[in-house]
């Protein structure tokens, strides 16, 4: 677990994945990054132009449901960062096919390929969506890594993205236990900040909708913001630190969408930010510095003001706002 090694990043073309590939290359790693379409410049060009990419980046085309494609990407890697997973919140008409199958079977296929190829450690990117929605959690206790999303609630209410992340993370822990594979998990909050890929992902699209005046509350999808660079760095910290184990909440603060929106309104009065009720996430206890496990490993989280400024600058530079 040290710079100079070869590591594989699934979902390397994505919002978080691109930052992770960039930081790994900066630290001297050789990186196998996966994309879904090698012939699509929108997935490859931003990775190929990163510093160190010419010498130490190799791209692989994968299908999460096609084990042979994963073996090719993972072969020769000492570590794997598994980020690839569908991030669809709206327009879910076939949850099994669109979300659950690629999230759960995809994770198991990646872990199986890692085990068979002698990988030392796998960092799995789960989510706060495997922590919330959790309506039965005690109202006076701050949510932490011991809290799990309520799958029955998710299924009854058609909240399929959290269902997919929860099922995938549980499957990962079961596989790790049964097969003696070293797995650590990162559970990021709502990730925002500078976007390296040419198009924006689902969480940056949420932020753009807020700037456009959308009054959606994201009751089941928001627990607080986190900077994309911090999320990428957290993956590396838990990979490089042999003592890191279990789940790692990765979030600047536990806060409500209303708190975030009022901070955006204060910093950018020129946008028509709607006013929200105080508690847009009913029952969610607010907390500063909730990511204690990552802070103990050396993480220093970017304040919310900077997350907002970097996100606005990024959306402006892409002509998205
Ligand atoms: N953004 C957030 O707020 C947030 C919060 C918590 C957790 N996460 C998790 O972080 C990870 C990365 O998310 P992101 O925000 O970076 O989203 P993203 O930009 O949409 O990236 C998702 C990545 O997964 C790949 N992918 C999706 N379905 C795939 C499939 N069936 N086969 C192979 N690759 C597939 C995508 O490839 P293409 O580029 O080819 O489509 C892309 O590289 C995901 O596991 C997500 O659940 C995100």
UniProtKB/TrEMBL annotation:
<dbReference type="InterPro" id="IPR001509">
    <property type="entry name" value="Epimerase_deHydtase"/>
</dbReference>
<dbReference type="Pfam" id="PF01370">
    <property type="entry name" value="Epimerase"/>
</dbReference>
<protein>
    <recommendedName>
        <fullName>NAD-dependent epimerase/dehydratase domain-containing protein</fullName>
    </recommendedName>
</protein>
<feature type="domain" description="NAD-dependent epimerase/dehydratase">
    <location>
        <begin position="7"/>
        <end position="245"/>
    </location>
</feature>
<dbReference type="GO" id="GO:0016616">
    <property type="term" value="F:oxidoreductase activity, acting on the CH-OH group of donors, NAD or NADP as acceptor"/>
</dbReference>
<keyword id="KW-0560">Oxidoreductase</keyword>
<dbReference type="InterPro" id="IPR036291">
    <property type="entry name" value="NAD(P)-bd_dom_sf"/>
</dbReference>
<dbReference type="InterPro" id="IPR050425">
    <property type="entry name" value="NAD(P)_dehydrat-like"/>
</dbReference>
């Amino acid at each position: 677990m040290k710079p100079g090694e070869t590591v594989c990043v699934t979902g390397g073309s994505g919002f978080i994945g691109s930052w992770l590939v960039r930081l790994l290359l900066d630290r001297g790693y050789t990186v196998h990054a996966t994309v879904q379409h090698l012939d699509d410049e929108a997935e490859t060009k931003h990775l190929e132009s990163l510093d160190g990419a010419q010498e130490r980046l190799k791209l692989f085309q994968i299908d999460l449901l096609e084990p042979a494609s994963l073996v090719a990407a993972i072969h020769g890697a000492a570590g794997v960062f598994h980020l690839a997973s569908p991030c669809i919140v709206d327009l879910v008409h076939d949850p099994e096919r669109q979300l659950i199958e690629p999230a759960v079977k995809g994770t198991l296929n990646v872990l199986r390929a890692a085990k068979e190829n002698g990988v030392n450690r796998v960092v799995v990117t789960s989510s706060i969506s495997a922590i919330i929605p959790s309506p039965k959690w005690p109202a006076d206790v701050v949510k932490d890594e011991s809290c799990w999303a309520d799958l029955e609630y998710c299924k009854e209410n058609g909240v399929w993205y959290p269902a997919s992340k929860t099922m995938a993370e549980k499957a990962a822990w079961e596989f790790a236990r049964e097969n003696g594979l070293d797995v650590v998990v990162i559970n990021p909050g709502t990730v925002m900040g500078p976007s390296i890929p040419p198009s924006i992902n689902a969480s940056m699209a949420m932020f753009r909708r807020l700037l456009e005046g959308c009054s959606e509350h994201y009751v089941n999808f928001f627990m607080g913001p986190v900077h994309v660079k911090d999320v990428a760095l957290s993956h590396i910290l838990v990979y490089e630190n042999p003592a890191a184990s279990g789940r790692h909440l990765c979030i600047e603060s536990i806060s409500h969408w209303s708190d975030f929106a009022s901070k955006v309104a204060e910093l950018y009065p020129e946008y028509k930010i709607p006013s929200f009720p105080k508690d847009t996430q009913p029952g969610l206890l607010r907390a500063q510095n909730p990511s204690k496990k990552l802070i103990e490993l050396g993480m220093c989280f970017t304040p919310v003001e900077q997350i907002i400024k970097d996100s606005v600058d990024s959306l402006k530079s892409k002509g998205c706002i």
